[in-house]
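testing teh design pipeline on a random one, pls ignore if ur not involved
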């Protein structure tokens, strides 16, 4: 016998059997797809020793490590600058000064709509900037504009009563933003911020198009080597898990920060003592009738 709730009907025996059947069929399909992909890889000789030989050489390993270091360097610069630019633009968009608000809005909308690759190429070719600064500048302009909208939306998502109560206590706008709105908005913004930083990490791979020696550029050099029978698939199978691992590590770090923030004593609710009978007037005892 099924039990109904306000949201859904709890599945009965027949529905549970059907769901298990769906799960088994989905698993079989996924395993068949995986087996077909492995068959194609073996059939085309992607696991032959000659294609995997480059990864046994110290020079190739140093090339990959140097490329990975350059990727992390570009990401570190771009993430810090994007967060700073996003905060600055969000402050401008939330400003009470109309001119500052319009300029910030125009900046955000323009660079948020501009493709990242176009900005990187323009800075690298037209402005003749070195590969690393060109890559970082392009990533900063785009991701900073997106993060500005994330920050602005997060601040505006805080209940209006919080702002009004802070102003009623005599706090200035800077104090309201610093001590009331931003700490509450950070919890709501954190998933979106981390998602955008993951995008910035993946977009560092665009650096190989402007000859920046990052991780994907190192893989491209190995994959195009005729001496090892063009090991394109082995390079993808080595580089892709590393990119995925870095993104997963970044997401794990965001979750750790969120959990630590929830355990912070400053963010916990403060118990308020119940009101006790006492003096109600400054002059002495409780008020008495005439």
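output:
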């Amino acid at each position: 016998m099924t039990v109904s709730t306000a949201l859904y009907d709890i599945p009965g025996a027949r529905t549970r059997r059907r769901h298990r059947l769906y799960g088994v069929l989905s698993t079989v399909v996924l395993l068949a797809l995986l087996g077909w992909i492995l068959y194609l890889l073996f059939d085309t000789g992607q696991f032959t020793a000659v294609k995997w030989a480059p990864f046994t050489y110290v020079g190739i390993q140093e090339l990959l490590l140097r490329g990975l270091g350059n990727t992390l360097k570009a990401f570190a610069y771009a993430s810090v600058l994007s967060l700073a630019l996003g905060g600055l633009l969000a402050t401008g968009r939330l400003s009470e000064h109309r001119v500052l608000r319009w300029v910030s809005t125009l900046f955000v909308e323009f660079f948020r709509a501009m493709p990242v690759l176009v900005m990187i190429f323009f800075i690298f070719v037209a402005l003749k900037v070195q590969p690393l600064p060109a890559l970082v500048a392009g990533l900063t302009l785009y991701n900073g504009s997106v993060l500005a909208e994330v920050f602005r939306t997060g601040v505006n998502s805080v209940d209006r009563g919080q702002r009004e109560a802070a102003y009623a206590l005599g706090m200035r706008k800077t104090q309201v933003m610093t001590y009331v709105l931003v700490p509450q908005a950070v919890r709501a913004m954190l998933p979106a911020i981390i998602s955008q930083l993951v995008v910035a990490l993946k977009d560092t791979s665009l650096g190989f198009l402007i000859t920046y020696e990052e991780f994907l550029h190192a893989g491209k050099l190995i994959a195009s080597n005729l001496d090892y029978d063009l090991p394109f698939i082995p390079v993808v199978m080595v580089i892709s898990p590393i990119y995925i691992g870095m993104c997963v590590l970044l997401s794990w770090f965001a979750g750790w920060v969120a959990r630590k923030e929830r355990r912070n004593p400053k963010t916990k609710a403060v118990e308020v003592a119940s009101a006790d009978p006492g003096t109600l007037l400054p002059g002495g005892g409780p008020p008495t009738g005439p």
